[in-house]
Write a structure and sequence with these properties.
This protein is mostly helical. The chain has a two-stranded antiparallel sheet with strand order 1-2. A hairpin with a 2-residue loop joins strand 1 and strand 2. The longest helix is centred in the C-terminal third of the chain and has 23 residues.
Length: 339
């Protein structure tokens, strides 16, 4: 208990300090994202990755951390995903490249001994989907940080139920680091996660959830995982569905996310992020209670129904303007990533 509190407090403080310290170098290196007519440095992701690895590694080296329970392998694989995401931030790699690289990292850490090969491969697909979906949340001030903190705490609780202290400790440190980052990411954001931070955080959360559910029933596990990542799933389904209906390429960015549509309905930027954070908390609580056996599968169906209602309702909110001609797209200004 003392280690967990100390590690979390240290991670929160270091992440807040490092995100601020790296802001100026990121601006000078042009490691930025254009957001509402201003450049937001992507130093937050680097800070979260470095602090999470440093705090967990220091606890392991000093011998005060709980048994690893596979957390060390997850952390190493997440580091590789972070490097891939950093390359994506610098060179604007295509989504398919990011997806393949994430899939390779997930293949290396999924616990096939408990899941079996078939279910393990499904878990790999799930991890890739969550990583790319969580990356898409980084377009709005405070959203990725708030949802990430909630999801990490949820997975930590599930791991604690299974007495997987190493995974629970890793999730707690990540949640604390994201909280420190969130101090600078709340509207108006002074830093952002970028692909480096969002992909690595999403990877740790997704794989940690798979570890916590390994060996349980496939259908019930799918429901629990869905509830833990309800906002990520809703955002991804909404964006992909809207782009298909609008005749746009699924890989093309645009203002079609949950937060964009909520703002069209009159919410402020922090209001939309706060509302989606509460929605993530609601889904997380249902997922944790279902994992612990305190609620039945019916509660998970309520989460799925709520996601469908939200998606179909927000699909009716217009966000896309008329399609521009090919020549206008070529000659127009370069667009930044919106997920």
């Amino acid at each position: 208990m003392l280690y967990g509190i100390t590690a979390a407090a240290t991670a929160l403080l270091l992440a807040a300090l490092l995100a601020a310290a790296l802001r100026t170098p990121a601006l000078r290196l042009r490691l930025v994202e254009r957001r509402r007519q201003r450049d937001v440095p992507l130093s937050g992701g680097v800070a979260v990755v470095l602090v999470t690895g440093l705090v967990v590694g220091a606890g392991d080296w000093l011998g005060v951390a709980p048994p690893a329970d596979g957390a060390r392998a997850v952390l190493v694989a997440a580091g590789a995903v972070a490097l891939l995401g950093l390359a994506g931030d610098v060179w604007r790699l295509r989504r398919r490249v990011l997806a393949v690289g994430t899939g390779v990292a997930a293949v290396c850490v999924v616990p096939y001994g408990e899941t079996g090969v078939g279910t393990g491969l499904l878990a790999v697909v799930w991890v890739v989907a969550v990583v790319l979906g969580f990356r898409g949340l980084d377009h709005a001030d405070g959203l990725a940080g708030a949802v990430g903190v909630v999801m990490a705490f949820g997975v930590a609780a599930c791991a604690a139920v299974e007495v997987m202290d190493g995974v629970a400790g890793l999730m707690s440190v990540l949640a604390a680091a994201l909280t420190g980052f969130l101090l600078h990411n709340w509207h108006p954001a002074r830093v952002a996660l970028g692909s480096c931070g969002s992909m690595s955080a999403g990877f740790v959360i997704a794989v940690g959830a798979v570890y916590a559910r390994a060996g349980s029933g496939v259908v019930e596990s799918a429901g629990v995982l869905f509830a833990l990542a309800a906002v990520v799933v809703a955002d991804a389904v909404l964006v992909l569905g809207a782009r298909r209906l609008a005749g746009r390429g699924v890989g093309r960015g645009g203002p079609g996310h949950l937060a964009h549509r909520l703002r069209r309905l009159g919410l402020t930027v922090p209001g939309a992020s706060l509302l989606l954070g509460i929605a993530a908390l609601s889904g997380m609580l249902v997922g944790v209670l279902a994992h612990a056996g305190h609620v039945g599968a019916g509660a998970l169906w309520w989460v799925a129904g709520g996601v469908l209602v939200v998606v179909f309702t927000l699909l009716r909110v217009p966000v896309y303007g008329p399609q521009r001609s090919v020549s206008a797209q070529v000659s127009g200004p370069l667009r930044v990533r919106n997920g």
